[in-house]
Design brief:
By secondary structure, the chain is α+β, with helices and mostly antiparallel strands. The chain has helices spanning 4-7, 11-18, 24-32, 38-44, 50-62, 84-87, 90-107; strands spanning 36-37, 66-71, 77-82. The chain is globular. InterPro entries: ArsR-like_HTH (IPR011991), HTH_HxlR (IPR002577), WH-like_DNA-bd_sf (IPR036388), WH_DNA-bd_sf (IPR036390).
Length: 108
């Protein structure tokens, strides 16, 4: 688990560190629509490799944005979902999406 000192005190820098990488926002968005399994996430995110998805899921779990639940079944079942802190990010995603759509319109 990361300590506060690793993030610093600037809220913008903290958010940027949590969302580092190309896929963080997309993964959080997909999980904001509900719990998903690994292969489902990979299908929903075109272009992401298995390695990159694994890396980002681990990082988001370490940052306590997502949770990973392993079920004692054969074959094993693992599900990913947003934590309470991750769910609070939904309004930010909505704002980013709205801004992105508006920006795309200005480019047309």
């Amino acid at each position: 688990m990361k300590k506060v000192s690793e993030f610093g005190i600037c809220p913008f820098a903290t958010t940027q560190k949590v969302l580092t990488g190309k896929w963080g926002l997309v993964i959080i968005y997909q999980l904001s629509t509900g719990t998903k399994r690994f292969n489902e996430l990979q299908r929903l995110i075109p272009g992401i490799t298995q390695t990159m998805l694994t890396r980002h899921l681990r990082q988001l779990e370490e940052d306590r944005i997502i949770s990973r639940t392993v079920y004692a079944e054969v074959p094993p079942r693992v599900e990913y979902s947003l934590t309470e802190m991750g769910k609070k990010f939904r309004s930010v995603l909505d704002a980013v999406e709205a801004w992105g759509l508006e920006y795309i319109e200005t480019l047309a």
